[in-house]
Amino acid sequence: MNQNLLQSIKTIVDPCDRCGTCRLFCPLYGVKSIENSNARGKVNIAKALVAGGLKPTGDVLAAVNFCLLCRACVDNCPSKIKTDEAMIAVRQYLANVSGGASMKQKILGSLLKRRSMVKLAASAFGLMRKTKLNRVIPAGIVPGNYTRNQFLATYAGPAALGSPMPESSSPISPETKVAYFHGCGMRMMFPEAITETIGI
Question: What angle do CA 130, 133, 134 make, to 5 degrees?
């Protein structure tokens, strides 16, 4: 299994000639401005793993996890290196050699594969919040409710990138521009939050 993954990774990344075009398009490269945050750096990590020159450590996992799998690098790569597919395979390889997913991850994964279970969980979470039962459940199990301003003040702009918000009594104003990406989880679990966030 692991050898097949390594071969698959090698097939994907070998044609990369390290031209660096991907650095111009990677949305995360500007955040850290270090080589392993762009596709070329991640391809080098993948090649080193395949060749045995790099051990599968937590630092390696953190580096390959720092990727949105957005395909901006793939779409603009002269050689069309499928870095997103390589990173998925590398993540799977690292999970395998570290003993695989934890029991919690396996349970969550089995639930998230079933749309009916996701909807049931979303309804249960909503009921728990309304009846205040979420207060007696360990922190983090039931997602909290955020108002739009609370969410933006916590996660928008510099805060999302690990930097402090600018000095201001009210960092969020009517002129503030925010890009909002609502993924499949939000559409299934919190559709009303999407409507309220976009509508305000």
Answer: 90
